[in-house]
Amino acid sequence: METLQNITPYVPALLLGVALSAASGFRIFVPLFVANLAAKFGLFSLADNMLWLGETPATIVLAVAVVFELAAYYVPIVDNLLDTIAGPAAVLAGTLLTSSFLQIDDPVIQWGLGLIAGGGVAGTIQAGTSLLRLGSTKFTGGIGNSFLSSFENIMSVLVSLFAIWIPIFIGLIALYFVIWVWRKLYKRRQQKQNSREIS
């Protein structure tokens, strides 16, 4: 009971980080930029070791990064190349975002929760968008990729904004979605193993 009481105060901050991490599954820098602005205008407080994320130099760097990232996904071939590094980058961004709002003294717990919750959510969603892009490239010859890029850009902005507005709700939806995806994958894997054993 005491452990639960110790964890409970951090749940809203954890869900805020998870909600923003979900957005980083679509684009890396958009949720980081939104988090920067939210901290800069005092909407949310950052952990003591992450205060740099809310400072002006970070605002400038992230704003430039957002513009380049959003534009780069409209360039043929470059979009698929970006997806090869976007997976690990999304996990790092999700970990960073979630850890930034967890005001926990123990860095192992702070970054551990950030990696498991934020990194897991971001990585799962990013993997899904990468598969969609590969499918789009295969079946449309890359023509459909620009539409997919627009969808991902819009989703990254909307999810980031809603994460700031209703963080607990968006965070819970993101966690539910990731759990649902992993359960589906696990069941499919089990079915394949069972079919191999029968054959």
UniProtKB/TrEMBL annotation:
Q: Which residues cross the membrane?
A: 12-39, 51-73, 85-104, 154-182
Instruction: Reply yes or no: does the keyword Membrane apply.
Output: yes
Q: Does the keyword DNA-binding apply?
A: no
**Record's protein name:** DUF4126 domain-containing protein
Domain DUF4126, chain residue ranges per copy: 14-183
Keywords of this entry: Membrane, Transmembrane, Transmembrane helix
Organism of derivation: Jiulongibacter sediminis
Q: Which InterPro entries match?
A: DUF4126
